[in-house]
Amino acid sequence: MRLRIIPSDSTPVYKQLYDEIAGQVLSGTISPGEALPPIRTVAKELGISIITVRNAWDALIEARLIEARAGSGCFVAELSSEDRERLRRSSLDPLLTAAAETAKNLGFSEEEAVALLREKFC
Fold first, then answer.
1. Bridge partners of 35?
2. How many CA atoms lie within 13 Å of 78's alpha carbon, on the beta-carbon side?
3. Residue 74 in contact with residue 36, Cβ under 8 Å?
4. Torsion of the alpha carbons at 39, 41, 47 and 53, rounded to the nearest 10
5. What residues have CB less than 8 Å from 79, skipping those under 6 apart?
6. I need a labelling partner for 68 at 20 to 30 A (CA). Which of 60, 74, 77, 94 fits?
7. What dihedral angle (degrees, nearest 10) is formed by the CA atoms of 3, 34, 32, 45?
8. How far apart are CA 1 and CA 24, in angstroms?
9. Which residue(s) pair with 84 in the sheet?
10. Residue 47, helix vs strand vs coil
């Protein structure tokens, strides 16, 4: 599992870690049952606080994307296909809602906004 953070980003580091792992879990890049690296290892490799990594892991546990096993560490949770799809959509929904509102406020038509979104996929 490859993790990266962008220190200059205005998004808090724990949220960057959360988003990165959540994206990998929901896209299937990391498989159910796969072990996450230990918190101390991640903190050392990224040069960040153990508390920051712990906050990200706690948020992932709360979201039921990973599970903690006493004495063994944290592992990617088993998700049904319905749960995975629901979580994927709920993760993207606020971003798309904000983009749609901004597009409307700027006077873009639906077709123009969709075309711009398509460009971003390339």
1. 75
2. 1
3. yes
4. -10
5. 25, 32, 64, 65, 87
6. 94
7. -10
8. 9
9. none
10. coil
* SS3 state of residue 15: helix
Within 10 angstroms of residue 55's Cβ, the number of other Cβ atoms is 17
Bridge partners (DSSP) of residue 5 are: none
Where does 25-111 show beta strands of DSSP type E? Answer: 66-69, 73-76
- CA 9/CA 27 separation, integer angstroms: 23
How far apart CA 116 and CA 28 sit, in angstroms, is: 27
Amino acid letter at 41? T
- For residue 86, give both structure tokens: 């629901």
Provide CATH code, domain 13-76: 1.10.10.10
